[in-house]
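User: I need a structural model of Osmotically inducible protein OsmC from Chryseobacterium fistulae for a docking pre-check later this week. Nothing fancy, just the predicted structure tokens so I can convert them on my end. Input:
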Amino acid sequence: MAITVKATLGKTKYYTEVVAGDNHLITDEPIDKGGQNKGFNPFEILATSLASCTAATLRMYIDRKEWNIDNIHVEVELENFPLTKKAIFKRDISFEGDVDEEQMKRLRSIADACPVHKILINEIEIETKLS
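Assistant: Understood. Predicted structure tokens for Osmotically inducible protein OsmC:
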């Protein structure tokens, strides 16, 4: 399944309009980096992808099992180390509802089955074409 996202950046520094199908969002850089902080920065968007995909994957599984879990909280911290070419995602998942130890173990493996998680732990290639 291929998806297409289009980003457009005009003359306003770093204020970028992003479109995917019928959905729109704004990205920007923080003020200390010359932006206006009017949207998520690119690193926040990357962490958001993992957090939101994890939550949705867990919700699908929890609903299928009909477990009594009201809310899923996923916090992702991203640390980037460009000099060593390493990035570390720290993911903290918590639940509101009735979750026993066996369910918690299963939910851990379901979180790791999130499609974005799978992409991030695989080899990644980026092909660039200028036109």
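Before docking, keep this in mind: The helical segments are 42-65, 101-112, 115-121.
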